[in-house]
Amino acid sequence: ERPWAAYASCRRADPDLFFPTDAEDGEAAIKICRGCAVREECLEWALESRIRYGVWGGTLERDRRRLQRRTA
Predict the structure, then answer these.
(1) pTM
(2) What distance in Å separates the CA atoms of residue 18 and residue 24, rounded to the nearest whole number?
(3) Alpha-carbon distance 39 to 5, whole Å?
(4) Residues sharing a CB contact under 8 Å with residue 37, sequence separation 6 or more, in sequence order
(5) pLDDT in single tens digits along all 72 residues of the chain
């Protein structure tokens, strides 16, 4: 379903980093995402799938909500 995930920078990282309890905790995950070769594919998938929680494609939940409102 997500063949691009095999190339993701996060595949070897602690999954807990990508499900922070507050925005500050998300910075570590976002830093990993910045250098990821498949960041755009990840973000696109999260938006299309309406993923509500976690860091996906270098964005937090609030970032994806804003993007979804803009494209609606």
Answers:
(1) 0.88
(2) 12
(3) 10
(4) 7, 8, 9
(5) 899 999 999 999 999 999 988 766 799 999 999 999 999 999 999 999 999 999 999 999 999 999 988 876
